[in-house]
């Protein structure tokens, strides 16, 4: 399950399509290498990490990838590797965040040093004659001003599409996106962007993020015909009301989202979990999923469950049930949970 291919500065497709189900490696610490290896062995073909030692072990993510390649499970070109440049603006924050650059150096130097470290950690495959590359480099957060964020984005551009296949941005609100990439006036076609558009916008997906980040998801849908993919994290941990028993509408009686999710799980059959059914509904909103499970059983359940829902949805009866649940689910989250 993939999104469209990443697109470079010249507008041409540049490589592997981003899988719609990505494995997230935040907070895995010393278990990162083993979990990344198990995720790939279970069927994940996209790995998300960051050059930020406080929350990620990018070096160990690379170990897990190389182990899977070394055992012949995948080739480098089969794996979508996504990492992040984490901007920090003072030495103490840099020390706390454990970033691989000197925060007092010029921004372009910070980016160069961070990307070089990521290439060593993740993309250098022993014995490969090909130069290392990253499938996606995500700006981990906007900088303090739009001008500084724009400068960082422009500093990354010379690395696309060879060293970095595509660029993204994370932890960003709609106001900042619209300042960097202004929307078209009502009834008019969008103007040519002054900055190349992101291929990925990665954000938290939950109720308190403005009705499940409705404005940012809308930005992604309208950006050059949906060229930007919305990539969601915290789908399970921050949304227990959406998938665990007892999830009810906040505004009064009536079915809640957990009932729609359960109906999809029951309809697809084959032991599809409610977690996988929620992922299937979120995917149907044109959202890519970051799955950070540490259970190898859940890795297989999530991927297998999403695929079983997709197969069921292709039947006439399955499509009718799924589309009804999807419409109700989408209305529920678009209403802000009626609360």
Q: Regions with pLDDT < 50 over 5+ consecutive residues?
A: 4-14, 247-253
What's the structural domain tally? 2
- Count the DSSP helices: 12
Mean pLDDT: 90
Instruction: Give the CATH H-level superfamily of the largest domain.
Output: NADP-dependent oxidoreductase domain
CATH class of the largest domain: Alpha Beta
Question: Might you state the CATH topology name of the largest domain?
Answer: TIM Barrel
Rg from C-alpha positions? 20 Å
Shape: globular
CATH architecture grouping of the largest domain? Alpha-Beta Barrel
Q: What descriptive keywords fit this protein?
A:
339 residues; alpha/beta; TIM Barrel; 2 domains; eight-stranded parallel barrel
Explain the layout of strands and helices.
Elements: E1 21-24, H1 32-42, E2 46-48, H2 58-70, E3 80-85, H3 91-97, H4 107-123, E4 136-139, H5 146-156, E5 167-170, H6 174-180, E6 200-204, H7 210-222, E7 229-233, H8 240-243, H9 257-268, H10 274-283, E8 287-291, H11 296-313, H12 316-334
Parallel strand pairs: 1-2, 1-8, 2-3, 3-4, 4-5, 5-6, 6-7, 7-8
Helix pairs in contact: 1-2, 1-11, 2-4, 4-5, 9-10, 9-11, 9-12, 10-11
């Amino acid at each position: 399950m993939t999104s469209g291919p990443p697109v470079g500065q010249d507008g041409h497709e540049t490589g592997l399509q981003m899988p719609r189900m990505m494995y997230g490696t935040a907070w895995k610490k010393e278990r990162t290498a083993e979990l990344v290896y198990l995720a790939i062995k279970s069927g994940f073909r996209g790995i998300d990490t960051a050059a930020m030692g406080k929350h990620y072990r990018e070096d160990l993510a690379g170990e897990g990838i190389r182990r899977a390649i070394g055992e012949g499970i995948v080739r480098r070109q089969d794996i979508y590797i996504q990492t992040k440049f984490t901007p920090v603006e003072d030495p103490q924050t840099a020390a706390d965040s454990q970033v691989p650059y000197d925060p007092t150096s010029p921004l372009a130097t910070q980016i160069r040093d961070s990307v070089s470290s990521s290439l060593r950690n993740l993309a250098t495959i022993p014995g490969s004659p090909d130069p290392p590359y990253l499938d996606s480099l995500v700006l981990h957060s906007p900088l303090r001003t739009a001008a500084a964020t724009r400068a960082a984005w422009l500093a990354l551009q010379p690395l696309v599409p060879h060293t970095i296949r595509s660029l993204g941005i994370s932890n960003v609100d709609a106001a900042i996106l619209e300042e960097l990439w202004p929307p078209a006036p009502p009834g008019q076609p969008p103007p040519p962007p002054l900055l190349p558009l992101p291929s990925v916008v990665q954000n938290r997906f939950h109720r308190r993020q403005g009705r499940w980040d409705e404005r940012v998801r809308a930005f992604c849908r309208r950006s050059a015909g949906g060229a930007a993919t919305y990539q969601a994290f915290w789908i399970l941990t921050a949304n227990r009301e959406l998938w665990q028993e007892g999830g009810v509408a906040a505004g009064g009686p009536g079915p809640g989202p957990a009932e729609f999710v359960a109906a999809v799980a029951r309809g697809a059959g084959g032991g599809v979990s409610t977690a996988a059914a929620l992922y299937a509904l979120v995917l149907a909103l044109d959202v890519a999923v970051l799955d950070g499970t540490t259970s190898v059983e859940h890795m297989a359940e999530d991927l297998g469950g999403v695929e079983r829902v997709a197969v069921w949805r292709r039947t006439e009866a399955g499509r009718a049930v799924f589309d009804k649940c999807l419409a109700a689910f989408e209305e529920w989250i678009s209403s802000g949970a009626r609360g």
